[in-house]
Amino acid sequence: MSDRTVILITGAGGFLGRALAEALVKDPSTSHLVLVDIVEPKTPHGVDAIAIKADLTDQSQADGLFQTPYGVPDVVYCLHGIMSRGAEDNFDLGLKVNFDAVRAVLDSARRAGAKTGRPPKFIFTSSLAVYGGPLPEVVTPDTIATPQGAYGAEKLMCEVLINEYSRRGFIDGRILRLPTIVVRPGPPAAATSSFLSAIIREPLKGVRTTCPIGNSLSSPELDLAVWIASPETTIHNFLLAARIPSSSFTSHTRVVCLPGITVTVREELQALEEVAGKEALELLEFQNDETNHRIVSSWPARFDNSYALSLGFQVDKGGMVPIVEHFKKAVDAGLA
Ligand SMILES: NC(=O)c1ccc[n+]([C@@H]2O[C@H](COP(=O)([O-])OP(=O)(O)OC[C@H]3O[C@@H](n4cnc5c(N)ncnc54)[C@H](O)[C@@H]3O)[C@@H](O)[C@H]2O)c1
């Protein structure tokens, strides 16, 4: 990045948007932040920042993000969205926010970049939910994405546009297919995968929670494998995404599956027990939810990380236990 970088984050009031803004404040190349969300986001201390409340399904509000006193952003992190279960249950809203509003921001970025002659870097958070149906044992960059849910379909449609806008030089796109991020702090999200965090987070906070997979600690359903990454590694990779030269990406696509690790729901619970003892497990109830199980088990759980690692992206080391330990420290410090 140049010495003076104006960075726009959409969805800046959300989990990853807030964590990204905090990380960017500590990054010396950040000069100004433009933080946008449908709910006015908080501005962090330590950097010039503007908070904008905007509904990005409205094109004129999306255009406004490129007309602030800071000028046209050099980097756009496009993070706003409706999560997987929300998009599945309210199809029209999911389509509007996860596709129409991404297209609106892309078009604003395209027009602004055409005026300055500098196409903004456009970093988009896609998801492993673009995959579904019959899949190979290990997903590779050649695996065709055939989503089996509204959220994955919307993400894939955005990816197609971002690749095309990049090919035409309207923007400089970087599409990050994220694993499920665990442990997510705060209240449960409207994501089908939300329980993967809740079964760690809530017991560590001394709160009862329901695991929607299986009916007891010995259920075979707990062998469901998932593909995850920690928030810390993910945010580190978000910063890297803006630094990788566009020439480093494979010529025909800007898609990268960010590195992750495979864990089963049972392994998550074993890590919880190792870090917080048997009493943490006693705070769990089980109630199998068929819709949840169907969607999560349609997602792939094993990926070939080598392309992402060759670009410089990082992977969590040491499995689930360090992730749970890290979150426990945050809980003990009153930060989660
Ligand atoms: N967290 C994960 O495990 C995960 C995994 C894969 C992909 N992703 C993607 O990463 C991105 C960030 O995820 P997150 O976990 O921070 O989600 P989040 O739900 O915490 O944040 C999304 C934000 O988007 C905002 N938003 C919704 N509609 C809007 C609109 N019309 N205009 C402006 N803002 C609007 C919400 O208010 C919210 O603050 C999303 O695009 C998500 O799909 C997340």
UniProtKB/TrEMBL annotation:
Gene3D superfamilies from the UniProt entry: NAD(P)-binding Rossmann-like Domain, UDP-galactose 4-epimerase, domain 1
Residues in NAD-dependent epimerase/dehydratase domain copies: 7-206
Keywords: Carbohydrate metabolism, NADP
The protein's name: NAD(P)-binding protein
The species this protein was found in: Heliocybe sulcata
Source taxonomy: Eukaryota, Fungi, Dikarya, Basidiomycota, Agaricomycotina
